[in-house]
Amino acid sequence: MLCRLIGMVLHLDEQRSFSPRPWSSMIGICAITVFLNAAGSMGMQLTSTGPQTVQRAQGERMTLVCTYTPDPSDTGELDIEWSVVSPDTTQKDQLLLSYAGGNKYIHGNPGLTKGLDFAAGDPSLGDASLSIAFLSPAHSATYQCKVKKSPGVDMQKVSLVVMVRPSVPKCWVEGGEAVGETVSLHCKSSEGSSPLNYAWKREGGGPIPPSATQNRVTGELLISNHSQSFVGIYMCEVTNAVGDERCRVKLTANKPPNRAGVIVGTVVGCLLLIIILAILIWLLIYKCDARFTRYEKEVSNDIREDVPAPESRPHSRGSSRGASLHPGVAYSQVGMQQTGHSDRGHTHIPSSSTGYTPVKYDSRYGFAV
């Protein structure tokens, strides 16, 4: 057929040789080229379209689309393969999932192939899309879908990037929020795949005054000269390619402190502290001195063991000697009245029911004999 078409073009060119039209040959060649391209495009074709790189959040369900249309001339057995393309061209690709002879097969590392399956119940009906039940950072890779039905074969690649959503950020204010001072609002998200973009907005009260500057990378909103015009509620929004979160903080404006009052208060406080310390030291010294004085008095009143006792008087010795010589006898001093009768200086003490024996008292010695 191709030869016939070329011959017809040449024959027409010969018949019109009397009128030279070189463009006619060019038209014939272009027609042949289009026919050849159309003939070469026959066979298995993948019809799915979409971006070459896909970004999804961790934990989501993902479907990598791969649809195909076989040619009537493709009469061989259908063979579908999903594999991970190795970034090293010297290494083999890792086969994950395949379909052949009406059966599905899982290959490779179970940690990577867990949750993988064909999205369609019957991949032989023109849909060979791959379904991933739960995305994780390990699924970030370049995937290849290959559909073969002899003599036709076609394939396509798609890159999957699994990212982490930003966590709920924390908002806080640094600075005393005093009028005329520097105040900074901070916003920070502890989790999330980079790049993270921070943006401050003012809720009510108008937009943020142009004198305030914000850093979209660090999440800081800096106010150099704070005033009442900055008072309000501020919202920080953090975003990345797969999600966004936000937090809020209230900014107030306080009157600046009285510096003279602060200085006076500081001086008075220092003086009071010095007075209290002096009183405590005086009390400590007074207490120690009182204890020392009391100790000296106790020591002076103690009787030393090496000092002899004073001698007793004769009368006391006689009384003691008489008591020791005549036990059980009652004694009385000279001049005391006795309950008896007196006879020339001798006192007779009548006996009583107690059984005491009367004794004689000798005035020369001062004791009974």
From TrEMBL:
Pfam family, one: Ig_3
Compartment annotation: Basolateral cell membrane; Cell junction, Adherens junction; Cell junction, Tight junction
This protein's record includes keyword rRNA processing: no
Taxonomy, superkingdom: Eukaryota
TM helices/strands, residue ranges: 260-285
GO cellular component: adherens junction; basolateral plasma membrane; bicellular tight junction
Recorded topology in the membrane: Single-pass type I membrane protein
UniProtKB keywords: Cell junction, Membrane, Tight junction, Transmembrane, Transmembrane helix
Listed SMART domains: IG, IGc2
Chief location: membrane
SUPFAM superfamilies per UniProt: Immunoglobulin
Coiled coil: none
Ranges for domain Ig-like: 44-159, 166-252
Annotated region (Disordered), positions in chain: 301-325
PANTHER family recorded: COXSACKIEVIRUS AND ADENOVIRUS RECEPTOR-RELATED (PTHR44468), V-SET AND IMMUNOGLOBULIN DOMAIN CONTAINING 8A ISOFORM 1 (PTHR44468:SF1)
Name used for this protein in its record: Coxsackievirus and adenovirus receptor homolog
Native source organism of the sequence: Oncorhynchus kisutch
Name of the gene this protein is made from: vsig8a
